[in-house]
Amino acid sequence: AQSVTQLGSHVSVSEGALVLLRCNYSSSVPPYLFWYVQYPNQGLQLLLKYTSAATLVKGINGFEAEFKKSETSFHLTKPSAHMSDAAEYFCAVSSSYFGNEKLTFGTGTRLTIIP
Amino acid sequence: DTEVTQTPKHLVMGMTNKKSLKCEQHMGHRAMYWYKQKAKKPPELMFVYSYEKLSINESVPSRFSPECPNSSLLNLHLHALQPEDSALYLCASSYNTGTPPYEQYFGPGTRLTVT
Predict the structure, then answer these.
(1) Quick count: other Cβ atoms within 10 Å of Cβ A3?
(2) How far apart are CA B91 and CA B99, in angstroms?
(3) Disulfide-capable partner of A106 in A6, A47, A75, B28 (CB 3.0 to 4.6 Å)?
(4) What pLDDT does A18 receive?
(5) What is the structure's pLDDT at B103?
(6) 3-state SS assignment for residue A70
(7) In which band, very low, low, confident or very high, does the pLDDT at A98 lie, cut at 50, 70 and 90?
(8) Which residues of A touch B108 (CB under 8 A)?
(9) What is the pLDDT of residue A99?
(10) If pLDDT is split at 50, 70 and 90, which confidence band does A102 have?
(11) C-alpha closest to that of A29 among A69, A73, A75
(12) Cα of B81 to nearest chain A Cα, Å
């Protein structure tokens, strides 16, 4: 079964500093990978997705992620953190399941921005 | 219109009540999903509907009864719930034809409290 592991349940960075959120995947085949963001009391919003078309994926709000097969990683980065980036971030992997696509989420990383 | 709407936003119900959650989308998506999210946890898939037919049931207790009356509407009927069923219930929708992966669009959720 495909799965993702997020290292670090809490990450704190200063405003303007680099954001790095880690995600490693476990899959026997090239996976479809996603990063979602969840603001307090809201649903999930897609930041970006990896579809094997390019290893460096650019998403919304200045975020990007790089797929590294050798490290089985898909870490999320943003060069300069903004206060509005404070949220919960989930890495997810999609797998085919009886003709449907099933999303399996990592345990999440809460990002705190220090003024 | 890229919005998934859910009603109500909040719901408090007793263990003997019967209530329903509603989800609606007008993006032409033919796959719709129910997720359950406990506090500080990732969303967990409950049900998947594809072309208005139930295609995945993740061994959800029968006190949760999904229904997809048409391609735009998804309901979750609740009966005899337990306090541990208190959670945020998220609805999502996606395409399920063409080239995967199929991005899931999430609604804001219904926060359910069972007393």
Answers:
(1) 14
(2) 22
(3) A6
(4) 98
(5) 87
(6) helix
(7) low
(8) 41-43
(9) 62
(10) confident
(11) A69
(12) 22
Summary mean pLDDT of chain B: 94
Q: Where are the alpha helices (DSSP H) in B11-110?
A: none
Q: What is the mean pLDDT of residues B62-86?
A: 96
Asked if residues A51 and A65 have their Cβ atoms less than 8 Å apart, the reply is no
A59: DSSP letter: -
> Closest to A102 (Cβ–Cβ): which among B45, B105, B111?
B45
CB B6 within 8 A of CB B33: no
Using an 8 Å CB-CB cutoff, list chain A residues near B112.
none
pLDDT given for residue B65 in this prediction: 97
Cβ contact, residue pair A106, B90, below 8 Å: no
In this complex, which of B43, B94, B101 lies closest to A51 when CB atoms are compared? B101
